[in-house]
Amino acid sequence: MTIAQATALLAGQGSGPMPEQDEFDVVPQHAGRKKIQVIKVVYQDLGLGLDLRAATDLVNAVPTAVLKQVSRRTADEAKRKLEAAGGIVRLTPEAGERATPEPTREYTRRPRA
């Protein structure tokens, strides 16, 4: 990518508008202090059809997606319910459409002088 292309992209003159993301994964990051309330939401309110043990295991395995490839409206509603129960939730683009991977850092030891 040349500097002119990058400048045009930043200015919105690129090949067209970026398509709006329409499918998301709902990923709880932390159950918070009210873990039992979050388990209840996963068990009852999200409509996953899980038994209590599976819902508990899913909440204990955070950060894992509880809903995958759902619409923006469904994802926002699930996020609202989980956050009202005390959880910390992040919406991510669907797995195949991740914009940028998480950066990895490599640490090397410097030789002693």
Describe the model.
With 113 residues, this protein is of the alpha+beta class. Helix content is 36%, strand content 15%. The longest helix is centred in the C-terminal third of the chain and has 13 residues.
Approximately how much beta-strand content do the residues carry? 15-25%
Overall pLDDT: 76
- What global shape is seen? flat
Give the termini separation: 41 Å
Adjacency order of strands in the biggest sheet: 2-1-3
What's the total helix number?
4
How much helix is in the residues?
25-40%
What is the H/E string? HEHHEHE
Count of β-strands: 3
- How would you sum up the major sheet? 3 strands, antiparallel
Low-confidence stretches: 96-101
Rounded to an integer, what's the Rg over CA atoms?
20 Å
Summarize the structure.
The protein is an alpha+beta fold.
What's the topology here?
Blueprint: H1 3-10, E1 24-30, H2 35-45, H3 52-60, E2 67-70, H4 72-84, E3 88-93
Antiparallel strand pairs: 1-2, 1-3
Helix pairs in contact: 2-3, 2-4
Keywords:
113 residues; single chain; flat; alpha+beta; 4 helices; 36% helix; 3 strands; three-stranded antiparallel β-sheet
